[in-house]
Structure prediction request, 245 residues.
Amino acid sequence: MKDEDFLLREKYKNKKSLWFYFDLLRLKLGYPLAYLLGWQPFLNLNIDLKYRVLIPRPETEFWLERYVFPEFKEAKNLKVLDIFAGSGAMGLAMAKNFPHARVTLSDKYLRAIKQIKRNAKINDIENIELVQSDVFDKISGKYDLILTNPPYVSGNFKYTKFSWSVLFFEPLEAVFSKKRGLFFIEDLLKNAKGYMKPGASLFIEFDPWQKSEIESMAKSLGWTDINFLKDQYSRIRVVKLINNF
Ligand SMILES: C[S@@+](CC[C@H](N)C(=O)[O-])C[C@H]1O[C@@H](n2cnc3c(N)ncnc32)[C@H](O)[C@@H]1O
Prediction:
């Protein structure tokens, strides 16, 4: 279905009011459909976007369902951390589909914390806790599983194909990071093991071209069990690391 038909059906119940035409104009100018609607589906959740956090992406939905859900199907008392959580889509999907798990979601920004709270309520999820934290600053404890989609886009034109829609409408602190987009990934590779139980897994989403740098960084930091996983478009999109330290 075309975006404008979806907008007309979902937001305007097929009534072509003046507001619909105003939204249509915004859509044509690149305003994201999910912000016009105010929500985005993510697996079996409805992710509200009132606080204008990053719109969860289909790639993230794909790898979570394809690689993470089956692996932890039988796990008992799972302790999960979704760090750089944004709307909370990933951590909340874990909490919803693993009702015996305990999921911690963290983000540096208050708007994300408010958004996660709201999304937990909308989706009737209680097995979570929220921590406002600059990366690991306020995180404590050891986890069986850490999931993360940190800001990983380089601000350099050489590495990045800019989408105007992302640049103008999505929060920049959710998208860009220093060191060619690898600043937070390096931080995770250096410090995540301190928050992982022995044998625990860490999944990090990244830009496909960053693969070789991530691989050499991980090896030089002592990670030995490193697996790269593809997205639905057959591009390397996620690295899974096991804590064998
Ligand atoms: C790419 S978004 C990911 C959102 C969500 N996990 C998803 O997949 O849709 C990255 C998130 O990192 C947060 N963030 C940026 N800098 C941070 C920092 N220093 N510490 C913690 N969170 C940060 C942003 O607020 C944003 O919500």
